[in-house]
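Hi L., both proteins are below.
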Amino acid sequence: MSGHGTPIPMTSRRASPLKGEAHVPGDKSISHRSLILGAMAVGETKISGLLEGEDVLDTAKAMQAFGAEVINHGGGEWSVFGVGVGGFAEPENVIDCGNSGTGVRLIMGAMATSPIIATFTGDASLNKRPMARVTDPLALFGAQSVGREGGRLPMTIVGAAEPVPVRYEVPVPSAQVKSAVLLAGLNAPGKTVVIEREATRDHSERMLAGFGAEITVEDTEEGRVITLTGQPELKPQVIAVPRDPSSAAFPVCAALITPGSDVLVPGIGLNPTRAGLFYTLQDMGADLTFENPRTEGGEPVADLRAKYSPDMKGIAVPPERAASMIDEYPVLSVVASFATGTTMMAGVKELRVKESDRIDAMAKGLRANGVTVEEGEDWWSVEGCGPEGVKGGGTAESFLDHRIAMSFMVMGMGAQNPVSVDDGSPIATSFPIFERLMGDLGAHITRSNG
């Protein structure tokens, strides 16, 4: 599949119960950061379990363009020979980040405090997404940016020749913005401070510390205060990437709504800033358990076992949980369709500026398949149809969004009638083995063009 090419219409229909083990790919967030920080270290960083989806591969190519040596040994094993903090070379060509908001925003931050110029672009979806949320704080370091109207790609960043440290309060909960500022702060003298009113995923902080950066995190009345001392020499690391909880969400949720299912999803990262979906599903009454809890590479990990759960109830999802499950609301709304009662999701306006307007995209697709949805600017609610009550039979538009496409493929596994999407090709950006993995569990997904 290609997220950049010909549309691939796909259809999912109810088949046998889902059974077996689902070995999902490596964590996308950690994969991006491993490549970028490896490129900013001095020496060889060895990475195993790297997600080899298009988003991460685009970041690998970008690190090569900035002068790092990146080697794919096969089987998820990679080496990055870094150029050191402040050692990026000026790229010869435009940096194409494909569909990846994480990739482009983090790379912009990493290069913004070096005296080089780089131009960034992406696919049709990425080029619609707002970049000012990153370029505004990068301007405080001394970087300049010129892009399309509304601060959109394609965009050229002129790195700061004499960067200054920054104190920045993140205006919206965004791990991408926070991480971009921290990466920029690596090559600024003195201490760069980032303040979060609401905690977001903390992979950057954990990994910066692992690479030897001087970084502290304090919970204060202001919020979560992260202080980074600039211009360190980062030390290369050996990184084992845990499996992605955002990818695990799909086989887990499919098992919960498909009669007779029992699926084990091994080795899933359960960082507290990422695991909100699984606790929400348990709150709804899902038969979901954590087995063999352990720590790997500084991250909490467990095996997830999900079984068919016909007694799930709609709930009001705590708004403070939003940052820890922002990418999982689309598939949660599918599960909510099979619950009894109404599920309310509030404090989620960030969904409107993801790969698509995910509230609008899911609302349209759910309605096309017989589900009642209400929505506002930063909330939406799904009226459950009960465990056997989702009619299906509709076609949803994916809006070039991998999570929208996969969510409706999950819906088709429990609905009365098949569910289709107009284009499943973006799935390759984050979960290239999705069709095969779900098929091995017993799902029935087909492509209209063969």
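That was the first. Here is the second:
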Amino acid sequence: MGPQDKTIRIIIALIIAVLFFTKVITGTLAIVLLVVAGIFILTSLIGYCPIYSIFGISTCKKKAAQP
């Protein structure tokens, strides 16, 4: 997982948390979004997304081969 991907996930998680604690989102939607936010934070801290590996996606920049 690349640094931009991590940053975007953390920003989205923080937005969800703010919306929850200001009671903009409530009920089942709030719970589902909090779970998603938790997953975003966890995967950002670990630097690994299982869904990316299933689909063969990588957001890391590949280093050029050095001669």
